[in-house]
Every structure is written in C-alpha cells, then in structure tokens.
Amino acid sequence: MTLQSVSRRALIGGGMGLVGGSIASRAFASPSADRFAALRTPYKFNRLVLGGSKVPGSFDEKAVDCPFVFSHGGRFYLTYVGFDGIGYQTGIAVSDDLIHWERQGVMLARDPSDPVTRYNVAAASILRETELYSPGRLIKVGGRYVCAWHAYPSAGYEQGAAVIGLAFSTDLKTWHRGPPILRPEDGAEWERGGLYKPYLVKHRDTFYLYYNAKTAEKTWHEQTGVATSRDLVTWQRHAGNPLIANGAPGTPDARFASDPFVATHRGEWAMYYFGLGTDGKARELVATGPDPLHFRKTNEVLIDVGPKGSIDDDYAHKPALVSHRGDLYHFYCAVGGPYPDEVRGISVALSRPWA
C-alpha cells in the first residue's frame, strides 16, 4: 500500500503502524488545580450535537468534523466540514444555546474547475477575539472577515498533501477564496507530507497562523507550528517550529500533536490541541505559555476517550472553545465504533456539571 492510498483516518482508525499497548487517561501527571482550573471542561455532554445528515446527496451525508465556534448578531455559529463520500466541504449551523444546532447549508464549497479545491475545501477558522472566556466575536480586517482554509488535492478523506489559504467576506455569506499561502514543499521536513488545520489569530500588529502538519513517511507523525504576517499576504514560518512537538513514547501525543486552537486568559496563552498516542486513541490536551510563540505542555489529558460503546471511544479530538454566561464550552470531534464503520460527529464538554 502506497502513501497516497493511506488516509489519515485509515491510518489511525485501522491501527497501521501502531505499537501495542494502552495509555491511561492520566498518562501525564496533573498540574496545580488552581493554575489550570479555568482551562478545564471535564463534563461531557455524551451525545452528538451535530452528526452526518444522512440525507442522500448532501454535502454532510456521511460525517461531520472539525468544529469552529463563534458568535455574531446575538447568536452562535458552528462551522464544520461535511463528508459526502467524495471529499470535504464546509458547512455552517446556528444556535441560541450551543446545544441545539440548525444547519444553514454550505459556507465554502469545493470548485470542480480548481485543481486546489476540486475535491476538498475545509474552512477551519475565522479571525475572532482571542480571550478564552469570550463569546468569540469576529474581527474584521480592512472591512472584511478572514477565514483560514486547507484543501487536500485528491478525492477521499484527507487524501494527499494539503495546502493552506485564506478567504474573505463582508457578510459571512459570500466568501472569496485566495490562492494558497502555505505549501508543504516550501516547509521543513516535519511538514513535507502535508498541512492540516490552520487557526488564525491577531495579536497587536501581527497575524499568527497556527497549523499542524505531517512528515512524508507512510507511518507519519504530526506536529504543530506557526507562520506570521503583518499584511495577510507575505508569510514567514517561525524559526522555532514545531511549537508543539511529539512527546516521548508512551505519552498521549507521541504520534500526533495536532489541530491547534489558541486563546489568551489572564495574561497567558493557551494552545488546545489533540494528541494521538501509540495506542491509536486521540485525546484533547493543552499547552500554555507567556506569549504566542512559546508553549509548554501542561501534562494533563483534558478530554479523554470514553468507554467502549460511547460516542468517543476511539477519538475525542479537534478542539474549539467558546464561553457563554460564564461557562466554557469545549466542542470536539467524537468518533466511536470500529473503522471503517465508525460514527464521526461533533460533541461538547462543559466547565461545570450539566444541569
């Protein structure tokens, strides 16, 4: 089997190249409760808030993935990617309570005439305020909203070496997609296999585009880095990449350290991400630091996989957070069941017990 024929989902779902054994939910020692209490969302909803539509021919018929949450006009919005058996397209849903979501259709569609997005286009983030305990209000640049997307070149689920680009909108309905701004072949060895989720942040006069990427070998590793820009046009990869590297054997991020969500709180920075260990399970983790370029892992599993038969018994991963009435909502992609018949959807965990 060649690299091109092995998808990310098959690799981690089917267990190819994984070392036997398991990782306990507390493989990292817990840090001080006082310092990190505000980052935690330990109370799972334990049900999907959005799943595959199961509507034949719809863009999200088979599965939904990769949540991103923000508020606009007094309501909450969830962007997500839908899989129809061919590839990714990006949808959007709306809610008043962050639990019940109404699908609004496709936000960013693939373009069969474009070699970059003819099969896939995944809008992973829209520039928004960085404060963790905020409703995630959007930020305009030059009168426009800015979305970061990535696209895989081949049909199927995350097939091929993806690139990253930006799209712009004045009304959140019509998006004008620009050319790729980051390509794997222009990066270091840790990202030559392809780029994944871009997360866009503005701090002072600089834009920070966090992203994870994979190595080129068949049994690859994923790590997270950043590129910076002053004008959203010219981008410079950070010399200290990757910011979040793989952990030692036996840790929850020994294989993947992926899908960044970056926020600030009480003068510190926090990067939520998911780790994949050698047991083939994906879990939500977090690293903190004093600025946008330096992070240290907190040595804690924030959201673990569930027991056998639960919605997330395989993966609890791909973070997106927002605050509402003082509570922190942590959305994530929940995957349960044996590959290739697993159910992939979006669930949420809360900072306090559910009422």
From TrEMBL:
* InterPro entries found in the cross-reference section: Glyco_hydro_32_N (IPR013148), Glyco_hydro_beta-prop_sf (IPR023296), TAT_signal (IPR006311)
Name the source's superkingdom: Bacteria
User: Which GO MF term does the entry hold, naming one?
Assistant: hydrolase activity, acting on glycosyl bonds
Q: Give start and end of each Glycosyl hydrolase family 32 N-terminal domain.
A: 135-278
Keywords recorded for this protein, A-Z: Glycosidase, Hydrolase
Report the family membership.
Belongs to the glycosyl hydrolase 32 family.
The name on file for this protein is Family 43 glycosylhydrolase
Q: Which species is the source of this protein?
A: Sphingomonas aliaeris
Q: What is the lineage of its organism?
A: Bacteria, Pseudomonadati, Pseudomonadota, Alphaproteobacteria, Sphingomonadales
